[in-house]
Amino acid sequence: MSLPIPLPTDAELELLRMLWTHGPSTVREIHERINRLKPTGYTTVLKLLQIMAEKGLVFRDETHRAHLYHVQHPEADTQTRLVDQLLDRAFGGSAEKLVLRALSSKPASAEELRRIRAILDRMEGEER
User: Fold this and answer.
1) What CA–CA distance (Å, rounded) separates 39 from 63?
2) How far apart are alpha carbons 54 and 52 in whole angstroms?
3) Residues 119, 40: Cα–Cα separation, whole Å
4) What are the two backbone dihedrals, phi and then psi, of residue 8, each rounded to the nearest 5 degrees?
5) CA torsion sign, 88 to 94 to 96 to 97?
6) What's the pLDDT band for 2 if we cut at 50, 70, 90?
7) Taking the complete model, does pTM exceed 0.70, yes or no?
8) Where along the chain do its domains lie?
9) Strand 58-61 vs strand 68-71: parallel, antiparallel, or unpaired?
């Protein structure tokens, strides 16, 4: 049995998004990307990546001169863990309350609504 995926902090999630988007990256590459969004020190990024490696969120490939950091878990798996936690903590396990709150908080585009309907139709078909 595998261990559950660790839940990332907000700062860790920001770095994970960069790695999911851009693939394996050096500390310098990650620092440059994050620094465009908000001023962040190089050593802060390095320390955060070291902590993330200890937690099992990323792993460091030391075969290159500049070490490459890779994500340890797919984005969808991490999102599932985060949604599960939110569902339990904020909505008492009610998927209905979560979905209704999400749709009332920020309007969904016509394309998003189409995809949501398709998922609901598929789920209803599986129940029959």
Assistant:
1) 30
2) 5
3) 40
4) -80, 150
5) negative
6) low
7) yes
8) 10-71, 75-127
9) antiparallel
Contact between 25 and 69 (Cβ < 8 Å): yes
The pair of structure tokens assigned to 69 is 């950091």
pLDDT tens digit sequence for 30-59: 999 999 999 999 999 999 999 999 999 999
Q: What is the CATH number of domain 10-71?
A: 1.10.10.10
Dihedrals φ, ψ of 38, to 5°? -160, 140
Point out which residues pair with 60 in neighbouring strands: 69
CA distance linking residue 70 with residue 62, whole number of Å: 11
**Amino acid at residue number 55:** K
Asked whether the beta carbons of 10 and 82 are under 8 A apart, the reply is no
78: left (phi over 0), alpha (psi -120 to 50) or beta: alpha
